[in-house]
């Protein structure tokens, strides 16, 4: 099998890179072992969260000076801003509606009721309260992955009136036999069914007259947000959703929409397969072997490593150190091991910044030398802390588009 590009990993980074390549006339393949970070994420994307006290431009300048190894610093401010805008266009072309844009960050409400800055947020997800707003946080009886009292207590600190309430939905009783079945995705499979819409509406209607906005756990909208639209049109107050503990309905929806569009654009999606070996001839990747294709390796002109961080086994931690399992690429990491973590759980953790080293074109390095046709993107990269710096989704998007542009130019695709 021959491809112009093989992408290892079908999370946010791999999918955006693949989509961008298909738009530029190429036919990439994505090999994806299983679930990605999106299946657990909020569904929102962050570009640079600590820009709250600074403009994004100024925050990127500071980053370039203070953190030269951050992926944004490798690319440069103008490129980062440009790729971020291109991501907005790409998502819109995939039919993925998002609120927000570069240079206009907003704050969304997190599953524990705190406010967090975001770049892009699905329109059904709750944004920060308005002054004087009366809010009811509405739990679903028996659903323990969302705690309305906790959310309400945090939200009250922003000065708004908030109450914690609960609705009972007897139609969900069939899921209650096994507590582990009473999860957001299973609830969504039931509630998204058009037959169930009216009973959800009936349970919410008595509450809706007393508040400006109801906040519900994101337990519906697995394929699209038509139920959310319908409830907003038919209830006398607004309704918005809060991401729950994983699994994440909005994250899975984002993944599904990106993946479907990738296939629709002609990309090849090799799901449930795993790359087991990468053959190289000096600094050139020549063939990629996978679990399912055994002795029939995939031949490719370009390879993109989008295998994620520790969470997805794109990086592995052992007693000896942190390593990249497919090629033993150079990894940014601190030694000794005691310096990987800080005692205070809420402090930035050094291990978050561990990851593969590249040059400014994002070509991966091994023993200090770069591969000519192997790029690395997204969570597998080192030099950033997606949680503390609020840039996880942004790094995935921006690095994906940077690599796709270079591959398209080298392959002679249409710009
Ligand atoms: C709980 C949680 C909440 C988050 N919330 C936010 C948020 O609010 N805002 C934000 O911006 N970001 C958030 N993120 C982060 C965001 O989802 C990540 O930036 C993003 O998922 C990283 O994408 P990625 O494609 O690089 O890696 P991943 O999503 O980790 O995907 C890597 C993929 O590669 C596959 N893979 C690995 N090795 C192989 C192999 N050998 N062969 C084949 N496939 C392989 C894995 O199975 C996986 O599917 C969150 C993440 C998590 C986990």
UniProtKB/TrEMBL annotation:
It is an enzyme of class 1 (oxidoreductase). It comes from Scandinavium lactucae. Residues 4-395 form the FAD-dependent oxidoreductase 2 FAD-binding domain. Composed of a catalytic GlpA/B dimer and of membrane bound GlpC. GO terms for molecular function: glycerol-3-phosphate dehydrogenase (quinone) activity. Signal peptide: none annotated. Keywords: Flavoprotein, FMN, Oxidoreductase. Its cofactor is FMN. The keyword Metal-binding does not apply. Belongs to the anaerobic G-3-P dehydrogenase subunit B family. HAMAP family: Glycerol3P_GlpB. Pathway: Polyol metabolism; glycerol degradation via glycerol kinase pathway; glycerone phosphate from sn-glycerol 3-phosphate (anaerobic route): step 1/1. It catalyses: a quinone + sn-glycerol 3-phosphate = dihydroxyacetone phosphate + a quinol. Its EC number is 1.1.5.3. This is Anaerobic glycerol-3-phosphate dehydrogenase subunit B. Conversion of glycerol 3-phosphate to dihydroxyacetone. Uses fumarate or nitrate as electron acceptor.
């Amino acid at each position: 099998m021959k491809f112009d590009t093989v992408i290892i990993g079908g999370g946010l980074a791999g999918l955006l890179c693949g989509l961008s390549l298909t738009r530029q006339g190429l036919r990439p393949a994505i090999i994806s072992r299983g679930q990605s970070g999106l299946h657990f994420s909020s569904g929102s994307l962050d570009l640079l969260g600590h820009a709250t006290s600074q403009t994004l431009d100024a925050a990127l300048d500071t980053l370039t000076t203070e953190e030269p190894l951050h992926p944004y610093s490798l690319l440069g401010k103008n490129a980062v801003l440009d790729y971020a805008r291109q991501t907005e266009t790409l998502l819109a072309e995939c039919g993925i509606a998002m609120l927000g844009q570069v240079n206009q960050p907003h704050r969304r409400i997190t599953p524990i009721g705190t406010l967090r800055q975001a770049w892009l947020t699905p329109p059904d997800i709750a944004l920060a309260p308005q002054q004087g707003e009366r809010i009811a946080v509405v739990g679903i009886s028996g659903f323990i992955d969302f705690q309305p009292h906790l959310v309400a207590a945090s939200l009250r600190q922003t000065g708004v009136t908030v109450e914690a309430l609960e609705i009972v939905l007897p139609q969900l009783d069939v899921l209650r036999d096994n507590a582990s079945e009473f999860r957001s995705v299973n609830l969504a499979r039931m509630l998204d069914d058009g037959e169930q819409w009216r009973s959800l509406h009936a349970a919410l209607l008595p509450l809706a007259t007393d508040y400006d906005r109801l906040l519900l756990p994101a337990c519906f909208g697995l394929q699209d947000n038509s139920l959310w639209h319908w409830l907003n049109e038919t209830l006398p107050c607004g309704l918005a959703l809060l991401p729950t503990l994983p699994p994440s309905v909005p994250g899975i929806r984002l993944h599904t929409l990106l993946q479907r569009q990738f296939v629709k654009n002609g990309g090849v999606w090799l799901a449930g397969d795993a790359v087991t070996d990468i053959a190289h001839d000096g600094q050139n990747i020549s063939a990629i072997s996978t679990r399912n294709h055994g002795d029939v390796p995939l031949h490719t002109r370009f390879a993109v490593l989008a295998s994620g961080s520790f969470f997805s086994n794109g990086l592995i931690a052992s007693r000896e150190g942190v390593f990249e399992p497919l090629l033993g690429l150079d990894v940014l990491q601190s030694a000794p091991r005691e310096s990987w973590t800080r005692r205070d759980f809420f402090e930035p953790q050094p291990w978050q910044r561990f990851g593969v080293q590249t040059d400014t074109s994002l070509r991966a390095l091994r023993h200090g030398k770069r591969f000519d046709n192997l790029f690395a993107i997204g969570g597998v990269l080192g030099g950033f802390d997606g949680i503390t710096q609020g840039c996880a989704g942004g790094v995935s998007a921006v690095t994906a588009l940077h690599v796709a542009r270079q591959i398209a130019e080298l392959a002679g695709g249409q710009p």
